[in-house]
């Protein structure tokens, strides 16, 4: 489990290097500890594996002041564990259910036991700025549009495929729009009066 913790920590540190999430932003984690252990989703939940992953991932996020949501499994309709403060900050509706390894999954259960003031919420209302999917549990519904994959050097946690994503604001405006500050300043030069 120590190796799993180190993998998780390396993955989140690289994630934060590539996408430095600011204080107050929202990160979503979904994962299958069964997949981490090389089994099919839902067949071998492991609180030990979940704890190792959280021990690696949470400290770097919490040090930055990032809110964390941990997705439960489909038996709870992908409800998420968050701190009560996160639910308030993001206007999330609390629901009454308690995760356990066979309904909610080991990762959500471990998060619920680890968080200071945990609550379950039905949805993040597509407000997460970034996240990680461990084992193909599908976190996309919780991410803001537009999600962009982050290619990490850590490709797996245990035996589970690791997929990371960040989000960016939508590009709007059509053919005349510019999408960088540099391009905007370049275009402004065209409108400045010519000096002799």
Automatic annotation (TrEMBL):
Q: What is this protein called?
A: UPF0340 protein TbrSNM41_12310
Pfam families per the record? DUF436
Spell out the family assignment given in the record's similarity comment.
Belongs to the UPF0340 family.
């Amino acid at each position: 489990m120590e190796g799993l913790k180190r993998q998780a920590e390396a993955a989140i540190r690289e994630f934060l290097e590539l996408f430095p999430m600011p204080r107050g932003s929202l990160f979503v984690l979904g994962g299958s500890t069964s997949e981490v252990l090389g089994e099919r989703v839902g067949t071998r939940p492991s609180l030990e594996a979940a704890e190792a992953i959280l021990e690696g991932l949470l400290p770097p996020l919490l040090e930055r002041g990032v809110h964390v949501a941990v997705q439960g499994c489909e038996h709870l309709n992908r409800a998420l564990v968050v701190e009560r403060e996160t639910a308030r900050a993001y206007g999330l509706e609390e629901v009454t259910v308690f995760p356990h390894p066979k309904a909610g999954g080991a990762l959500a259960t471990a998060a619920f036991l680890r968080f200071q003031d945990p609550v379950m919420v039905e949805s993040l209302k597509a407000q997460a700025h970034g996240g990680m999917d461990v084992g193909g549990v599908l976190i996309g519904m919780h991410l803001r549009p537009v999600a962009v994959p982050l290619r990490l050097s850590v490709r797996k946690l245990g035996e589970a495929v690791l997929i990371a994503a960040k989000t960016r604001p939508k590009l709007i405006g059509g053919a005349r729009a510019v999408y960088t500050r540099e391009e905007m300043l370049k275009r402004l030069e065209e409108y400045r009066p010519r000096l002799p």
